[in-house]
Amino acid sequence: MVSDNAKSGDRLREAAFAAMENAYAPYSRFRVGAAIQASSGEIVSGCNVENAVYGEALCAERVAVAAAVAQGLTSFEEIAIASESDEPSPPCGSCRQTMSEFAPDLLINSYARNGKQATWRLVDLLPEAFALNHLRGRP
């Protein structure tokens, strides 16, 4: 019997790989997909979107978070990241900071096309994230 958590993880992984197929990565050729699960159980996906102005590129994780927020979802449990890399890819620093705004202890599962997987907790990848409480006391 497959547990609900395993089923959820399978659905997230599948959604992340499906999103990866839509990635727009003509410059790096590094396609990434992400699927984030809200506390409500809803799954929202995103893919990386590159731009000729490299600094304007959007990472899959941030696209997924932004799409979820646009749907009114701001509490998250888990994210799956899929790439064609030989090794599972952790989220970049900007993605870590964005995710920490909503879920500092987010479970992160990263999958490579060849089947390799890695799992982290966001708090371990970004232990001292800048947060709202740092803005208190400002003029």
Question: How would you sum up this structure, described in words?
Answer:
This protein has 139 residues and is α+β, with helices and mostly antiparallel strands. It contains five helices and five strands, in the order αββαβαββαα. It has helices spanning 4-20, 60-70, 93-100, 122-125, 132-135; strands spanning 32-38, 43-47, 76-83, 107-112, 117-121. A five-stranded mixed sheet has the order 2-1-3-4-5. Strand 1 and strand 2 (43-47) form a beta hairpin. The longest helix has 17 residues, at 4-20. It is globular and about 45 Å long. It starts with a helix and ends with a helix. The model has no long low-confidence stretch (mean pLDDT 93).
What would the keywords be for this entry?
139 residues, 5 helices, 32% helix, 5-stranded mixed beta sheet, 5 strands, globular, alpha+beta
Q: What assembly state would you assign to the polypeptide chains in this entry?
A: single chain
Q: Low-confidence runs (pLDDT<50, min 5 residues)?
A: none
Q: What is the CA-based Rg, rounded?
A: 15 Å
Taken from the alpha-carbon principal axes, the silhouette is globular
- What fraction strand? 15-25%
State the strand order across the main sheet: 2-1-3-4-5
Provide the structure class: alpha+beta
How confident overall, as mean pLDDT? 93
Distance between the termini: 57 Å
Q: How many strands, what sense, and barrel or not for the largest sheet?
A: 5 strands, mixed
Helix content: 25-40%
Beta-strand segment tally: 5
Number of continuous helical runs: 5
Q: What series of H and E elements makes up the topology? A: HEEHEHEEHH
